[in-house]
Structures are given as structure tokens and as C-alpha cells.
Design brief:
The chain is mainly beta. The chain has one domain (4-141): DNA-binding pseudobarrel domain (At1g16640 B3 domain), CATH 2.40.330.10. Helices cover 7% and strands 35% of the residues. It contains 2 helices and 9 strands. The protein has helices at residues 31-34, 86-91; strands at 4-9, 25-27, 48-54, 60-68, 79-83, 99-104, 110-115, 130-132, 137-141. The protein has a 9-stranded mixed beta sheet. The radius of gyration is 15 Å and the shape is globular. The two termini are 12 Å apart. Mean pLDDT is 83; it is low at 124-134.
């Protein structure tokens, strides 16, 4: 498995600042990002995979990667989300503009870290191997 790093700049909704209920961070339907996550069976309603991420302090966080595919079953939703991240975001004291960094190593192990907006070097977005995607997602090819 190829190592991969993806980054997501949190929106006010992602950070819980809007006061509305959300169903996790929206994952773009970009194949380069979707290959980071386990493959889900689209013939099942709302398939999901639970992924354990380790933070730099060694704490384990279990998030759910879900394909809300109700559109295939008479509904309207057709989107991927990473859910169950609220506790991580709150414990880290993150807010909109801060960045979640997700890593998957060559052995398929996942880790997570974050950068506060005041610490993010925006000039790095022009580096080779860094792709900025709509919605605040970026892929870093290793």
C-alpha cells in the first residue's frame, strides 16, 4: 500500500462553530482522496468502515468513513463523510481555518495530527507534490 497524506482545512461547520448538526467532514469524490480510505461496498445502504488513527501522543481515535448512498435506495444523499471526529477536534482546541492532517503509511496504519491556522505555512501549497483541492482538501504524494 502506498503511503499517503491528506489535509483538510476545517470549515466553521466542521469545527462545530455554526451550531448546526452535521454528519461529519465531507470527503470529495476525488479518487485520489477516496483511495486513502478503505473501499466500501456501494451495493449496501450507507456502508461504513471504522478506522483507528493514532495521534502524536499515542492516543487512538476511531473515526467512521461512511458512504451515504441513499440515492441508490430512493433517497437523495450521495456523499462520503468522515464522522466521529468531534471529540478529537474539541480536545485539540481546533477551530475553522485549522488543518487536520491524516496519514496512511506503507503498512496501512493511520495517524492523525493537526496544525493551527496561525502555524500553517500557506506558501507550502505551491510545493511539488502538494495538490490543493476544492473544499479545503489537499493530497501530498510521498
Amino acid at each position: 500500500m502506498n503511503p499517503l497524506t491528506i489535509r483538510k482545512t476545517l470549515s466553521p461547520n466542521d469545527a462545530g462553530e455554526t451550531g448546526t448538526h452535521q454528519a461529519g467532514i465531507l470527503i470529495p469524490k476525488d479518487q485520489r482522496i477516496l483511495t486513502f480510505f478503505p473501499r466500501l461496498r456501494s451495493n449496501r445502504r450507507n456502508p461504513r468502515a471504522h478506522i483507528v488513527f493514532e495521534d502524536p501522543a499515542g492516543q487512538l481515535w476511531e473515526f467512521a468513513f461512511i458512504y451515504y448512498n441513499n440515492i441508490r435506495f430512493g433517497g437523495t444523499r450521495n456523499e462520503y463523510r468522515l464522522t466521529r471526529m468531534t471529540n478529537y477536534i474539541r480536545q485539540a482546541g481546533m477551530s475553522s481555518g485549522d488543518e487536520v492532517v491524516l496519514h496512511r503509511d506503507a503498512e496501512g496504519e493511520y495517524s492523525i495530527e493537526h496544525n493551527y491556522a496561525r502555524d500553517v505555512d500557506v506558501s507550502s501549497e505551491n510545493e511539488t507534490g502538494v495538490l490543493r483541492l476544492g473544499g479545503g482538501w489537499r493530497i501530498i504524494d510521498l
